[in-house]
Amino acid sequence: MDKKITIAIDGFSSTGKSTLAKQLAKSLGYVYVDTGAMYRAIAYFAMQKGYIKTDYLDKESLVVSLPNIILQFQFNAELGFAEMYLNSENVEKQIRTIEVSSFVSKVAEIPEVRAKLVEQQQQMGKNKGIVMDGRDIGTVVFPDAELKIYMTASAQTRAQRRYDELIQKGDQVTFEEVLQNVEERDYIDTHRSNSPLVKADDAIEIDNSNLNREEQFELVLDLVKQKIS
Questions:
Q1: Which residues bind ATP (predicted)?
Q2: Nearest to 21 by CA among 5, 38, 34, 12
């Protein structure tokens, strides 16, 4: 397994992309990059500055502020994964709220935001040996990735997973709120003009509605082994 490849994982929200990517990176000794956290951090920044609210987006002010936004991943040995830092502040917890979830797809539609983050992501993966998940990894960020996975599941299944996760964290949400958020994000992600969520022609589609984490991991790990053997 000396050969290192680029693994691109795309798909809808709450399909477990990040969980799978973390498992693969740990097993293979690869670098893991959660691109969703990067977009979430910018959405959180916009919220803090008052650039985005319900039915309001000050796109111009956000774009002007982009050069002042510094995103970094810092590994937390106790947790076993890297956390997102926004301008030197750990925002890992703040960016996972349903409020940030409700704004992230709108922020991700902005071409200037995507250009800034895609450039950073491509730089991170220039030496291969990387697992990256998001919406446009196999189509835009790494179109030449050796392995592309496209993950999907029913909206109801994904909303239930997200709801259970938020409740476990102590968030006060209803299932209906979470389902609406999932469906809205699906629509925005697949209909935006800039880098919409689409399945790359050479991606392997995995519907994990009826797969547990371990079954999914073993399935994809076998695909990785076929590529690097």
A1: 11-19
A2: 34
Known binding positions for ATP: 11-19
CB atoms within 10 A of CB 56: 8
Extract the tokens encoding 37.
């956290």
The count of other CB atoms within 10 Å of the CB of residue 96 is 18
* CA nearest neighbour of 108 among 10, 47, 199, 196: 196
Q: Please write the tens of the pLDDT for every residue from 158-175.
A: 999 999 999 999 989 999
The radius of gyration of the chain's CA atoms, rounded to the nearest angstrom, is 17
**Phi, psi dihedrals of residue 147, rounded to the nearest 5°:** -135, 125
Residues 6+ apart with CB under 8 A from 201: none
Sign of the C-alpha dihedral computed for residues 151, 162, 185 and 183 taken in this order: positive
Bind-site residues: 11-19
pTM over 0.70: yes
